[in-house]
Amino acid sequence: xxxxxxxxxxxxxxxxxxxxEKGLSSxxxxxxxxxxxxxxxxxxxxxxxxxxxxALSAEHIWQYKVFLSRHVDPKTxxxxxxxxxxxxxxxxxxxxxxxxxxxxxxxPPSKVKLAKDRSDKEIKFLKLEQLASLLNSPDTGTIxxxxxxxxxxxxxSTGLRVAExxxxxxxxxxxxxxxxxxxxxxxxKGSKIRTVYFSVRAVxxxxxxxxxxQDFDEALFINYRRGSAxxxxxxxxxxxxxxxxxxKYVKITGLPVMATPHTLRHSFATDLLNxxxxxxxxxxxxxxxxxxxxxxxxxxTNKQLRDIHRKVHENRSL
Length: 318
Fold this sequence. Notes:
Blueprint: H1 11-20, H2 26-45, H3 58-70, H4 82-101, H5 128-135, H6 143-158, H7 162-166, E1 182-187, E2 193-198, H8 200-210, H9 239-253, H10 261-274, H11 279-286, H12 291-294, H13 298-314
Antiparallel strand pairs: 1-2
Helix pairs in contact: 1-2, 2-4, 6-8, 6-10, 10-11
């Protein structure tokens, strides 16, 4: 077995492993680089720059967790949220998993315990009457209004992530007959392919929008800024543009919830669970790799059940 290097010198090897053997996207590798550099910087700051994997101990992990819990973000001037601390710890655990795979003696990955987050994740979602107001708010007398209505209807009907929606092309959406639903394949996080479903209402909105398109841009949703039509580049809407469109209609509608495209995804998932769809199926619809990610929505439906139970029993006289 070759002599070990310092932990800080394994970053490039780890990134190659992440790309080739784990198939992680360049964005995920970029995030892991950022998260691991914080650990490396901490090692430097406490005089452990030359620490080798075999010398890494549970006490080192504990001290690093203490550092993360007390670290003040220079931008927000606040300590890191538990969820943010866990991003750094997950990256470190992945590095230790790499050591295991490459037979590099080190601390077991299981020794990196995630920070406990006692607060329930708050899921923002829209009630049906709020959704109706939002979906009907665009002025469909204009091509921009037709586009925006198609965007809103698609987000709620499919549960697509905003980046997945922005990446859609016209040739993916083949509408043969109005009044029928539609299903297409999309590539989501981690390059996973899944099927998403458009309701009749969403299909009709898309058809109304596409019927008035006179351009040849391959993107399904494009911008109409002045001068953009004369450009040789694609006019595809960016993720930020879609977010701004949703924000615009939230303000127009006067909703109490500051909804985003992800709020519509939450609303899609919550509505499915409220209709009795099982959690595994909702996981498939959303494209979650781990069902634990989908389980955050049970907080919402469980609370609704609790409220119903409380209301029934408070009004009952025995």
